[in-house]
Amino acid sequence: MRLTDLNSGRDIGANSLLLEFGGHRMVVDCGMHPKHVGKSALPRLDLVAGKVDSIVLTHCHLDHLGSLPLLVRGNPRARVLTSAANTLFVQRLLRNSLSVMGRQKEEQGIAELPLYTHGDIERVEAALSAVPLDNPRRVGSGADEVELRFHRAGHVAGAVGFSATHQGRRVFVTGDVHFSPQRTIPGAEFPRTPADILVMECTRGATTTIPDASRGSEERRLLRAINRVVDGGGSVLIPAFAFGRMQELLVFLGEAADRGELADCPIFCSGLGLDLCDYLSEASRRTRQLAFDRRILDDLGIIALRKQYTDPGRKPREAGIYLLSSGMLVEKTPAWRLAANLLDHRDCAVFFVGYCDPDTPGGQLIGTPPDGEFEFKGLDHVARVRCEVERFHLSGHADREELVAFAKDVGPRDIVLTHGDPPARDWMRQALAEALPGTRVHDPVPGKPIDL
Ligand SMILES: [Zn+2]
Ligand SMILES: [Zn+2]
């Protein structure tokens, strides 16, 4: 097999891989880089234009899905194979991405935006093909035939990893993976059987696992912290990805409220996250690949946040819990805008519950010392960080030790690292060299094929 990383850099960006099985060319995921705008956010589609036979979509985060309309436009005969749940999310998330690009074009005057049209999204929708979990699905024919098998990957609703067997050799691709169960989805159910090649994510390779920070104790710590701030009359901002993470937190808050353990206060959510509640609710009814019921919104009395913010520096009109996207506090998102109302106030708090890239405003806020300055570009406001800023370890990605243990169970001859920043890849390469001395570990150079 020949593998080419189509991501434009060695990071968690525009995730995309080309796998060549004899003459069959398969592209796995086609993301858009969250930190770049315009064509520089795309993976290396120039390397595969018109040459792709099949496409696998592991899950619907935009760093895996965001550029798919362009891949499908350039390869109109390729089917997009994915889980049944994912087929129900693709269109809604791409439409949101398209409207974000429309806004960026207007605000930043970037002529090349948007990079695709509603027509392109329709073509993706028509190319989708749901593959049942744990079932074989053949693509290609003759000597090029490849047998695929999808398995639950935990991580986020609909996410799958998969094995691909070609001429008796088996490659396993983890995609983004989380091994333990969350509230709306079970943990990954990957077979721990031998594979020749393992393609593995390593998001948390540079994150020290805190042994006693089990999910349960982190959740209790989060709940205590929320109650303390709310009881003191302040507001809590929880920046969360609209897709998956927001619904997880809603179920978490709902369960706490049912036990009588959540302080009584209004809870606000932002538009896309609320909209996606309908999609996750529908997907759990139709596929049973997740468990989420939108009635939780009524049970918690969720209020849709109107975009009539108070002036930066002043507290919001109503104190409460603000569960808003984006998870990394990206500029101009509801979470970023609300942060401009909380940071200056000692009785308020920002609680992060997921990964924050150091280059995003969320990462920068985490790195700002107490009473340090934090600039809101475009709002003409420089805040003094007087509020509490805290991180809770509720990641949707596997701990690094869990990934090494999985690699040991699979015992591959070759491991290819993906989806990690350079320090994460470095740790993983060393840990794998110690755990599996006979295995070759590859950290692919973007655009350069590796023969395996
Ligand atoms: Zn993901
Ligand atoms: Zn990802």
Which structural category fits the helices and strands? alpha/beta
Alpha-carbon distance between the termini?
5 Å
Cα-based radius of gyration, to the nearest Å: 22 Å
* Proportion in β-strands: 15-25%
Distinct ligands: zinc ion
CATH architecture of the largest domain: 4-Layer Sandwich
Q: What's the story with the biggest beta sheet?
A: 7 strands, mixed
- In oligomeric terms, what are we looking at? single chain
Measured as a percent range, the helix fraction is 25-40%
Give the total of beta strands: 22
Q: Could you say how many structural domains there are in total? A: 2
Mean residue pLDDT: 96
**Order of the strands making up the biggest sheet:** 6-5-4-3-2-1-22
Q: What's the CATH H-level homologous superfamily of the largest domain?
A: Ribonuclease Z/Hydroxyacylglutathione hydrolase-like
- Tertiary shape: globular
CATH class category of the largest domain: Alpha Beta
Give start-end ranges of low-pLDDT stretches: none
Q: Enter the CATH topology name of the largest domain.
A: Metallo-beta-lactamase, Chain A
